[in-house]
């Protein structure tokens, strides 16, 4: 270890808390990729590691890069200045042809096979909804400059599904913020359907697009509520540095010049908001922020103790299918 070193914690979410904790204990600056943990118990570890890093003066950057988009920052400033009026509704979409899995070949072991295709299992990566939608949920929280107080939602699988993984084909979450503002977050992963990848904002004065396809800085305000190119009233200056590079520029500048920079708490809270939404869909319940923050739930009780010889945290039934959430019964908060 040398002064100024930065460790990249970019494995699957199940192992992020362990690696971040270890790096901070060794006095190393951290870049941690999303997702930051698959469950509330893991999020608490990230929060504690962030506090320890703060006490040591270590820097932590987090891979929710849209916060470093200059185009989005410009729109945020206009929102804060009142150009859109009061924000009343946010709509975010991530819909594509899907990620269904056939019967898993458990080689060289069941555990290692699950780790190699992590997005099909909740314990490894948080599942496909969080893997994809954490960015849009982070955008919703950024727009509102706060965290949702409640979440409820619906989801399920298509009647033709033979998916052996744990994911639903559809997720729709309604978040409510402290002032009553709603954020609607929709994921659909089914072939031959309409696809979308965007975030929109509606204020009392006008609407805006906040984000575009594959996180493109498709940012613009409209004259009223109509989301139409011909109705555009404002666009920001063209980005000269993409957000993926910008987040590194900020982190490395903080390391080299000893500036405060610790994104652990904000990133962990955005991840917890995403977990709360997923849990609301899976459980069929309305969940609160306080419940999510208080929860110690873990999909895998002892991730730290896993080895290549450990049994897998979940197992398939006789048809090769892994446990799928049953709303009204399932709990993960």
Mind summarizing the main beta sheet? 9 strands, mixed
From N to C, what is the helix and strand string? EHEHEHEHHHEEEEEEEHHEH
In spatial order, strands of the major sheet run 11-10-9-8-4-7-6-5-12
How many DSSP H or I helices?
A: 9
By secondary-structure content and strand pairing, the structural class works out as: alpha+beta
Indicate the CATH topology of the largest domain.
Answer: Dihydrodipicolinate Reductase, domain 2
Distance between termini? 38 Å
Radius of gyration: 20 Å
Number of strands: 12
Strand content: 15-25%
Q: Indicate how many domains the architecture comprises.
A: 2
CATH architecture of the largest domain: 2-Layer Sandwich
Amount of helix: 25-40%
Specify the CATH homologous superfamily of the largest domain: Dihydrodipicolinate Reductase, domain 2
Q: Indicate the mean pLDDT.
A: 97
Shape: globular
Pick out the low-confidence regions: none
CATH class label of the largest domain: Alpha Beta
What can you tell me about this protein's structure?
The protein is α+β, with helices and mostly antiparallel strands. It has two domains: 6-65 and 243-262, 3-Layer(aba) Sandwich (Rossmann fold), CATH 3.40.50; 69-238 and 272-305, Dihydrodipicolinate Reductase, domain 2, CATH 3.30.360.10. Helices cover 32% and strands 19% of the residues. It has nine helices and twelve strands. It has helices spanning 16-25, 40-56, 70-80, 110-116, 122-125, 128-144, 243-257, 264-283, 289-294; strands at residues 6-9, 29-32, 60-62, 87-96, 150-156, 170-176, 182-189, 196-203, 207-211, 220-222, 232-234, 287-288. It has a nine-stranded mixed beta sheet. Strands 1-2-3 form a three-stranded parallel beta sheet, sandwiched between helices. α2 runs antiparallel to α8 and α6 crosses α8. It is globular. The two termini are 38 Å apart. The mean pLDDT is 97.
């Amino acid at each position: 270890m040398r002064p100024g070193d930065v460790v990249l914690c970019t494995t699957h979410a199940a192992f992020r808390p362990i690696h971040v904790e270890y790096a901070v204990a060794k006095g190393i600056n951290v870049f941690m990729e999303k997702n930051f943990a698959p469950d509330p118990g893991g999020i608490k570890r990230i929060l504690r590691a962030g506090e320890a890093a703060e006490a040591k003066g270590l820097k932590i950057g987090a891979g929710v890069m849209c916060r470093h988009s200059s185009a989005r920052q410009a729109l945020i400033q206009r929102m804060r200045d009142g150009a859109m009026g009061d924000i009343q509704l946010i709509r975010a979409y991530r819909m594509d042809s899907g990620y269904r899995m056939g019967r898993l070949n458990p080689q060289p072991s069941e555990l290692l096979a699950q780790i190699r295709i992590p997005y099909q299992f909740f314990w490894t990566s948080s599942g496909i909804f969080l893997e994809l939608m954490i960015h849009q949920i982070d955008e919703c929280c950024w727009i509102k400059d706060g965290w949702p107080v409640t979440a409820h939602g619906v989801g399920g699988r298509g009647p033709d599904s033979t998916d052996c993984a744990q994911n639903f084909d559809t997720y729709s979450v309604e978040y409510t913020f402290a002032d009553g503002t709603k954020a609607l977050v929709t994921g659909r992963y089914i072939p031959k359907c309409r696809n979308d990848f965007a975030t929109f904002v509606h204020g009392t004065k006008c609407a805006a697009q906040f984000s575009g396809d594959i996180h493109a800085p498709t940012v613009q305000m409209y004259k009223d509520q109509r989301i139409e190119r011909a109705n555009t009233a404002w666009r920001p200056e063209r980005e000269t540095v993409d957000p993926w590079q910008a987040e590194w520029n900020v982190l490395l500048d903080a390391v080299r010049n000893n500036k405060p920079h610790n994104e652990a708490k904000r990133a962990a809270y955005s991840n917890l908001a995403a977990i709360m939404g997923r849990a609301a869909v899976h459980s069929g319940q309305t969940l609160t922020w306080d419940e999510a923050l208080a929860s110690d739930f873990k999909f895998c009780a002892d991730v730290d103790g896993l080895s290549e010889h450990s049994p897998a945290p979940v197992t398939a039934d006789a048809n090769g299918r892994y446990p799928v959430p049953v709303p009204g019964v399932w709990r993960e908060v």
